[in-house]
Design goal:
- The chain is an all-beta fold.
- The chain contains no helices and 35 strands.
- The N and C termini lie far apart (42 Å).
Length: 381
Amino acid sequence: MKKSSRLPAALAFIGALSLSQPAGAESTAYQIDATHSGSATVPGGFSGPLIQRWRRDLGGNVSYPVTAGGLVFVTVAGQAGASVYALSLQTGATVWHQAIVGKSTQANLAYDNDHVFVTTGLGFVEAFAADTGALQWKFALAQTALTPPVASGGMLYVDQQGSGSLLSALDEATGSTHWATTGPTGPSIPALGGGGIYVVYPCTYFKYATTGSLQWYLSPGCSGDDGTGFPIYANHIVYMENAPGAEVIAKAAGGQLVSSSTVPLNMALWQNPSGKAVGFLVANGALRSVDPVKRQFGWRFAGDSHLNGLPIVLNDTVVIGSSLGTLYLVDANTGLQRSSVSVGAPVGVAHSEGGLTGFGASSSTLLVPAEKALIAYKSKS
């Protein structure tokens, strides 16, 4: 695996991250980082009340943000296709923007090693210089790529969907394919951790080494599927959202089954003060805490009863939004509201056009996509 000497030490091996060593508050992929735990540490605390730093209306549906070097990167879906924007973290001003190849409005992104990588529903991958927006390379995939990519250690991992699924590892510097492997039909969001990469297809679960060799495979049996496969790596365990009633929790190293669950695993994961893994998800318009291994729900926070999307956890504060336009900060231990603010547009609503949406963070700044707007907040604490 090729590694660049420019790779910051803090990003050199995302596979080493776990809930006991949470990522700093910098977003490099969907749900904070390539593990997709949705949990990060903010220096100095983060509990509200929230103060708006800036707001940008970007004219199209805004994706989840990724951040690096004082910049915020998002894709924006427009009528003529999608674009990628780099904004100043301090002011929200546009530093650069580039149209994405083709007219696809489906575009997702990741950051690593001074590059922003964008995958599209038309089957292209493009790499842009993070500081200037200069196109470094573009590559036509064999099939479409509708799920977020992940990048680490000089490699970009992309899941493609068509007649089957194709997991590919591309060289970050050149776009050349290092390896590719096929799987059953069905989209998956790849996740990295514990020295491997995880993908979830209908009723099947895979771990590959970063060299492409198959490490383990699970097929415990189920029927149907639940849309996009969503694995999360945390503390040597991988939590894999799949068909209803067949969500699987396994040991990352060998694939030994820890638990199968009827509790959905599309969630944010956090380690509480006693060292226990706690999940947070939205069910029936309310935010719930959950013990994912014991399959038990804990506290319930209703908010305005229109909560949706995936939360993130900053320190011990859960961030969740509402389709009615309210942003909430909730105590992760108790489920009590710490703060709320009116955003003025729906938060966490899935778009018919555009990539996935979700929260991001950089240092003490919370980044909130709300339809066509991206809003930056700071915690008064």
